[in-house]
Structure formats: C-alpha cells, structure tokens
Specification:
Layout (H helix, E strand, L loop, with lengths): L4 E4 L5 H8 L3 E4 L8 H8 L4 E4 L7 H6 L5 E4 L9 H6 L3 E3 L6 H16 L2 H9 L20 E5 L3 H14 L2 E5 L6 H7 L1 E3 L2 H7 L2 E4 L13 H6 L5 E4 L8 H9 L5 E4 L18 E3 L8 H21 L14
Parallel strand pairs: 1-2, 1-3, 3-4, 4-5, 6-7, 6-9, 7-8, 9-10, 10-11, 11-12
Amino acid sequence: MSKPRILIARAVFPEVIERLSHHFEVESNQADTVWSKVELMEKLRDKAGAFTTGSDRIDGEVLAACPQLKICANMAVGYNNFDLDAMTARGVLGTNTPDVLTETTADFGFALLMATARRITESEHYLRAGQWTKWSFDMFAGSDIHGATLGILGMGRIGQGIAKRGSHGFGMNVIYHNRSRLDAATEAECKARYVSKEELLKTADHLVLVLPYSAASHHAIGAAELAQMKRTATLVNIARGGIVDDAALAQALRDKRIAAAGLDVFEGEPAVHPDLLTVPNVVLTPHIASSSVPTRLAMANLAAENLIEFFTQNKALTPLNPQVLKG
C-alpha cells in the first residue's frame, strides 16, 4: 500500500523530515522558499497532508484547487493563516502547536519588556556608533520594572507565564484584562487582578499584549487607546500583527505620547511599517518569541505527530476543528 503524500511547506529540522518519511511520501522545502499562492496550490495539488507555518495561507481558493488535502498541521500556536470555516466545510482538519512554546514565549516577552523599559537597543546603537564619550547622570535613563505595574491584555497561558515572572520575580503589581475573568485560584497563582480595559490602559506602567488575533481584536490598540496610556508607559506586542495599529504607534512614539515600545510582530510581516524604522524608542525583533532550539523542535514534532496520528488513527493531539474527524 502506498504511503500518503505530504508537503512540508518551509524548512524544518532534518530529523523531523526523517521521522515523517517513515510514514509518508514527503516533499520538503529545505531551500525555505516562500511560495506564492499559485505555487503553493501547485505543490499541494496531489497531497493528502501539509506541514505548514504561519506564512502559508490555506483558504477556500487553495482548498478548491487541492481536493485530496485532508489535514494542515501548523507549526505555530496561531492559525490566522487558516480559513478554518472553509477548511471545516471541506472536511479538512487544522491543527496547531499550543503549550510547548508557552514558557519560552513568556521568557522572550519579559526579555523584550526589559529591553524596552531600560532602552537597551537604543543605547547599544549609540555605543556602536562611537557616540559614547562620557558618563552623564541621565544617559539612557529608562523606567524601572521591579515594583512597577504590569498590565497584560490577553491572559491565556503565555499571559499567565508573564504575570508570574513579573509578580514572583520582580515584585510587580499585575493587572490584566481578558475576554473572561480567570478563576480565583489562577488569579492567586499569578498574583494578578482583573480590571477593565480602560483601567488597564490608564494604570499600567508596562503593557504587554498576548491576545489572539481575530476580527474583534484588529487594532485593539490604536490612537485612541495609546492616548489613554501614561506618557511614561511602555507597550510590548508578542501577540500578532494587526492587534496594534502600527502607523498610530509610530506616531505616538515619535510624539513621545508613550515612552517606548517593543515589537516582535507586525502588520503585513515580514514587511515593517517604515515609520517604525525611523523612531529610536522602539525595540524591533523578527517574530522570534518562540525561537529557542528545544521549543522549535518540540513545535515541529507536535505538528509531525498530528499528521502521523491523523493518518494512522484518525486522531490529532491538538485539533482546531475536531468536528471534521470521523468517529
């Protein structure tokens, strides 16, 4: 009996390809070419499964061109590259990789917060440019993290990880806003207090965004929200591009409406709004919050396991639309 044919749409660890090759006829993209939509459809046309990343858009047009496709396993927690309704309508399973990257992403979120508050990137550029010639009392004076008020918008697993780092490690006063309030035990574990979005914006010294992207969260932070924040506040986005209005943020940074920002995600990435590249008080990283070797390997293996379980047992460890699985 022939093996199912799958596509690995971007470069991945060789050992993951080898593991998948025991179960599938694999076409991989170790050149890491970012295919156009037409190229992706051509590659997927004869495939039963796909190992995808956030750069691979799976929508109704792609699905219509690829009738053999039965599963797309995303190597990411987010899945806004999937039109999940269209996939469900065509009986195509989508999976993601939650949990395995929670602590690594929370580590990075806190690192980005610290770099932003303490002006690390800005001061490094100054030093590298040969501008450091003397000590001065206010040279790159930033804001404290210990004892400050940490605001978290979106209190899922990663948000809770950041809250614990702030409250337990740095003695921060943690406040949060979420679609639904956490249970009392989880709040106590995080030492976090639920507040309205308005109070969060007005009160936080450092605001970290960790909410999922959806139509409802598009530009959840825009000019109006930035205007409510303290002028001394910092904003960190490790969630998804599109949650922040990048143009409005660039203007707020230029006008010193807020003190600084740290961004790991952007609208239309890998493109970055050009105005963000011209303001000094922003730390920019290329969507690397989950990028440690152990975590990326765990993500790849979870995506691989979803493919294997689907074709061998009609199951998946982390299905997004489990209703398409046949009982």
